[in-house]
Design a protein that fits this description.
Blueprint (H helix, E strand, L loop, with lengths): L3 E4 L9 H12 L8 H5 L6 H11 L6 H21 L7 H9 L3 E5 L4 H11 L7 E3 L12 H16 L10 E5 L2 H9 L4 E4 L5 H7 L3 E3 L7 H7 L3
Parallel strand pairs: 1-2, 1-4, 2-3, 4-5, 5-6
Helix pairs in contact: 1-4, 3-4, 8-9
């Protein structure tokens, strides 16, 4: 029986992939890099450092760590400026999160930087629903490596046991993801995954290992989660 849910952030809670892409396109032009939409979406699951390094590698250029951090900071500032105008949360996600929080312990596992996650959760009022957050700063490898999900599972299980619950098994902790690398990372960590077609097709999510696919999370209730993801 599912007892906890680990949410991805970009592409599941906030509909900002195109905002992130446009910000990176603007910033990378200063280094003579033209980032295409195809290149951006082929990099889903990467943290910012890996993404920037790959963008330079793709065109045969080198970049030092200081410039990488400068690019990321500038991108993040542009992103925040854009999302602050009107937070682009997925329609109905606030209600879905609140509904799930009544029955499950919730956490976030994302390759986004912590300050971006905190800004969105604080602005939207969703912060109170999440017991733990694993961000890019907490891991050394990005999705589809299972490290971030293993960290998230340990943290959310520890929180539950501190509250008096019995330790969870891996199949009792569901991951909600919108990208194939995210789904694959969850499965690599032995966690079940619900894919949501906010970014890619249901076929790609199922190929990555999603046990079920949602076209709209608003259609799912806690009982639906329990029935679909049975042990």
């Amino acid at each position: 029986m599912i007892k906890a849910i680990l949410f991805d952030f970009n592409g599941v809670i906030i509909n900002d992939e195109h905002v992130q892409m446009r910000a990176y396109q603007e910033v990378l032009k200063d280094d003579g890099i033209d980032l295409t939409e195809e290149q951006y979406f082929s990099s889903l699951g990467m943290d910012d450092k890996t993404f920037v390094a790959n963008a330079f590698d793709r065109v045969g250029k080198t970049v030092d760590a200081a410039r990488v951090e400068e690019i990321i900071a500038t991108k993040s500032a542009k992103w925040k400026e854009n999302v602050s105008v009107g937070l682009p949360l997925f329609e109905g996600i606030e209600n879905f999160v609140e509904k799930m929080s009544r029955e499950f312990t919730l956490g976030i596992v994302s390759m986004a930087r912590r300050h971006e996650i905190d800004f969105v959760l604080a602005t939207s009022g969703l912060a109170k629903y999440f017991s733990t957050i694993v961000s890019a700063e907490d891991t050394s490898k990005c999705k589809p490596d299972p490290e971030c999900f293993r960290t998230g599972f340990r943290q959310i299980d520890a929180i539950r046991t501190e509250q008096g619950h019995l330790p969870m098994t891996h199949d009792e902790c569901l991951v909600i993801e919108d990208s194939p690398p995210g789904v694959a990372g969850a499965r690599n960590a032995d966690l079940p995954a619900l894919g949501v077609t906010n970014t890619v097709s249901s076929e790609r999510l199922r190929e990555a290992g999603a046990g079920a696919v949602a076209t709209d999370l608003r259609d799912w209730m806690p009982e639906s989660i329990r029935r679909v993801f049975v042990q």
